[in-house]
Amino acid sequence: MRSVKVAALVAVGGILLSACGSGAAPAATGSSTAQTTASAAPTTKTVSAEFWSAPDSFNCITASSGYDESICSLIWDTLVWLSPDQKIHPLLASSWSVSSDSKTFTFHLNPNAKWTDGQPVTASDVAETLNISADPNVPAVYGSYLNILVGTNSSGQNTNPSQPLAGVKVVNPTTIQLITKQPTDPTEMLQTIGTGVWIYPAHILKNIPMSPISSFEKASYFQNPTVTDGPYEFVKYVNSQYVQLKPDPNYYLGAPKINQLFIKVVPATSVLADLRDGTVDATLSPGESDVPLQDWPSITSLPNVKQDPVTGTVTQFMWINTAKPYFKNPQVRQAITMAINRNEIVTDLLKGQGYVPIGPVAKLYTTWYDKSIQPWPYDPTKAKQMLQAANFPFSQQLTLLVPTGNQIRMESAPLIQQDLQAVGLNVKIQQMDFATMLATDRKGNFDFSLVGSGFGSDPSQFATFFACNGALNYGKFCDPKVDQAFAAGNATASTSARQTAYDTLQQTIYQDAPYVFLYTPDGLMAYNTALNSAAIPNAYGMQQPWLWDISGVK
Fold first, then answer.
1. Using CA atoms, how far apart are residues 142 and 483, in angstroms rounded to an integer?
2. pLDDT band (50, 70, 90) for residue 455
3. pLDDT at 15 over 70
4. What gap in Å lies between CA 331 and CA 337, rounded to an integer?
5. Please, where in the chain does CATH 3.40.190.10 lie?
6. pTM for this structure?
7. What is the rounded CA–CA span in Å between residue 31 and residue 53?
8. What does the pLDDT look like over 157-194, one tens digit per residue?
9. Residues 289, 290, 293, 297: what is their CA dihedral angle, to the nearest 10 degrees?
10. Is residue 26 within 8 Å of 18, Cβ to Cβ?
11. pLDDT tier at 553 (50, 70, 90 boundaries)?
12. pLDDT recorded at residue 11
């Protein structure tokens, strides 16, 4: 292993939870929380989960961070939810059906679902959410999911924005139909629109200005979302410290048993101590809140904490800004991939707890994973020859953006820098908090950028990253063959035909090398033994929050 000095950095701000009784808001670290718990009422059930970085927004129509989504999943609901065994479960939609031509999907909403202001959740709420997500003026992160619907273009935008989406039909207050342009695999509908679009109250949305877009993105409702339909209600957010939630006593799947829920922004270096002291009860989600690898063996010595390693679905990658003229040649990007010793990152930094990915499809998704593809080999000699043959401007100063929060990611940065410098690239590292880095990426002000994403369980979801006009395609990668593969996958209800299209998709992305797919770590999750089985994190994090509970008083 190379000897590299890595500065000790902690996240003050990071895609994817101490049974201590206290009415006071907790601090981001354990000491002050411990002082407040002594006077707590013994009947109060308080759970604290942690993640590494602060959420950037609670507007999950436009938010692009997994930290944002983790909060959204607690206070708003989607139509259905997906478990790691790839089974779909009812949520707002208690049942659904598909027409014989596989073009009309009818969702029946749970009649007991209500907003926290007492109004019922209706099909009009679903329709309004989808219409806003398809508005050409709204940079909806998952807008591309809607491109299967009648009345949208390839980006999922309404082609006639003066009118409601033609592919969305309110049948009655509890029934909505989604109509697709072509026969559609139910898996695609359910795993994209079904699980990926949080439903918002139409009676609130209609009062939010859509222009300028900043007015919508930062509307007061999304800063203080007090009308929600999820199992927990928003209480407050203390910037870069914690989000405080309380149970919705009228939640349609049953009132949560936890009296107070805190999602705390915890530096990775504090996770072990906070789990030991009981000031944090669980790591919330893989890739956002894992136990640091160097602390993983120490978990076994904690009598009140259990380890929970899970299959990794969050891939860490290096964006390459293909809008830069010196990165337009795919051979240059292939050479950059071959210059980086990714196996060393897995072996030395991850201690073997993960694997080198071939692309955006995680190994967990066996239906789609193309086993015929092997990762690009580590070959710095050939990489340098390829760069020379492409007339790469070696004197060009290149910047590698590195967000604080994820310790392994931060430690990988100097290794990547050394490997790229070894083949002649002039690379400097620039660190910043995660939200600031994403804003910088969005503007295209980068050469390389270290990011992670779960991408999605259905390959159609990847369009937001890899389609020419994808909302998260910050590297401006564009290959018509990729868009054609997405279109082919959307054009059939046959799973086998979709698999053929997505094999082509994976192979094309592999050859284009728009990203360096660095590593997919196992999720090193841990939780306090006072939590019930429903609260144990899985490959998708902590799910079914309305069932979480704790036993005993600590």
1. 16
2. confident
3. no
4. 10
5. 30-75+230-309+525-547
6. 0.77
7. 20
8. 999 999 999 999 999 999 999 999 999 999 999 999 99
9. 130
10. no
11. low
12. 26
Query: Which residues have a Cβ under 8 Å from the Cβ of 23 and sit 6 or more positions away?
Result: 40, 41, 44, 260
Confidence of residue 41 (pLDDT cuts 50, 70, 90): very low
- Which residues are within 8 A (CB) of 440 and not within 5 positions of it... i.e. 6 or more apart? 401, 432, 446, 449
Strands 515-521 vs 354-355: parallel, antiparallel or unpaired: antiparallel
Q: Is 391 left (phi over 0), alpha (psi -120 to 50) or beta?
A: left
| Whether the Cβ atoms of residue 265 and residue 487 lie closer than 8 Å to each other | no
At 213-238, the pLDDT tens digits run: 888 888 999 999 999 999 999 999 99
Q: 147 pLDDT exceeds 80?
A: yes
Specify whether the CB–CB gap between 266 and 52 falls below 8 A: yes
Q: Where in the chain is the domain with CATH 3.90.76.10?
A: 80-205
Report yes or no: 346 and 519 within 8 Å, Cβ to Cβ: yes
Please check the confidence at residue 203 and state whether its pLDDT lies above 80: yes
Instruction: Tell me the CATH number for domain 30-75+230-309+525-547.
Output: 3.40.190.10
The domain defined by 315-521 carries CATH number 3.40.50.1100: no
How far, in Å, CA of 554 to CA of 551, rounded?
9
Residue 42 burial by CB count (10 A; 0-12/13-18/19+): exposed, middle or buried? exposed
Where helices occur in 23-65 by DSSP H, the ranges are 30-36
Compute the distance between CA of residue 67 and CA of residue 119 in angstroms, rounded to an integer: 28
Residue 140 reports pLDDT greater than 90: no
Token pair 């991939």 is found at 337
Strands of 232-275, DSSP E: 232-238, 242-247, 260-265
- Helices H, strands E: what count in the chain? 17, 19
The CATH fold of domain 80-205? Dipeptide-binding Protein; domain 1 (3.90.76)
CB 215 within 8 A of CB 207: no
